[in-house]
Amino acid sequence: MSRSVMKPTMTSTSLCLAICCQVLGAVVTGCKSQQKVPPAIFMFGDGTLDVSNNNYLNYTDDWGEPNRANHPYYGIDFPSSEPTGRFSNGYNIADFIAMAMGLDISPPAYLSLTSPISVKDFTGVNYASEGGRIWNYSILVDDSEVTIPLPTQQDYFADTKAQMAPQLGNHPVGSKDIFHISTITVRPRPINNTAYVSKLVTSFGASMETLYNEGARKFAVINIPPIGCAPEMRGKAVGRRSHQFGPGGCDETVNELAVEFNDGLKRLLYSLSSKLDGLRYSIGDFYSFSNGTFANPGASGFANTSIACCKRPCDSQAAFQEPPCQNRTEYWFWDEEYITEKAAKLAAAAFYDGPSKFTMPINFKKLIQRK
């Protein structure tokens, strides 16, 4: 599906919730925003937020086939137990963040919409795509997936604004109208390449400045979790340093790259807030929250934080190799990369309105309420 990208013709003052992670995300545990009129939400990112954009991507011989969650057992715990394109057993982070803001569910996938986009009963747009990353695929020469990288998602946002502008007339979109969310896949490669991680941080900063120039002013960022502890990475830890958080142990070489990116992210946001007038931010420490859960899973009701509830091929068009686990609320990981509905809820509760040790300098709720 192709769309022409038009330059925006209106300004906006936006709240941008940027969630930087490869395999994990966060949602809110049923808490609702006290705002009477929920803001529209614009979501950018990867499979943590994808609500079916990948369903609309076409296979190409040059770039391969998109990963889709449009088959069982995805959506087994979603209303009607139907796969919806979400890489989850039920609702995903996009849905729960929307609920926290007072909406019923995530805004629709961008590629599912027809032009022009109507402002009537408008709740926002979801641009997220499984596999979506900070860089374009032309830079990552060893990739063969079809996806929507962050720069293209930003173009789609500009197109959305351009479609809405004629309907809004001279009324700009204000701070209570736009809420940006993004999950960005960060897959460290090559291993032990510090320059690679530094370039990723710089590129993410450029993306934030692009959103700032579009009118975004508030950025809530969830950092990268310990991706070396994901089921798909545990099998790759052989021959590299690891520690035990379940079968196979976590790949500490990969986790150290995540820490390096997270440290760079803190410096980046501090720098941007000093340089860009009106920019405010909050960082959710997903790395520490995840490690704390892995160290004492029983305290949160988890019996397994190392093995996927469902087995490969979770991200292909084929059916799962076997039915998923029955006790899904006891699992942290739904498939080899993405977390269960319950895991996402608990994480978001910590970042949205939880203890200060998991957010800096303020939590997301306070950031949202800030003038």
UniProtKB/TrEMBL annotation:
Transmembrane segments: none annotated. GO terms for biological process: lipid catabolic process. One of its GO terms (molecular function) is hydrolase activity. Keywords: Hydrolase, Lipid degradation, Lipid metabolism, Signal. Coiled coil: none annotated. InterPro entries: GDSL (IPR001087), GDSL_Est/Lipase (IPR051058), SGNH_hydro_sf (IPR036514), SGNH_plant_lipase-like (IPR035669). Residues 1-25 form the signal peptide. It comes from the Eukaryota. CDD domains: SGNH_plant_lipase_like. PANTHER family: GDSL LIPASE/ACYLHYDROLASE FAMILY PROTEIN (AFU_ORTHOLOGUE AFUA_4G14700), OS02G0292600 PROTEIN. Belongs to the 'GDSL' lipolytic enzyme family. This is GDSL esterase/lipase. The lineage of its organism: Eukaryota, Viridiplantae, Streptophyta, Embryophyta, Tracheophyta.
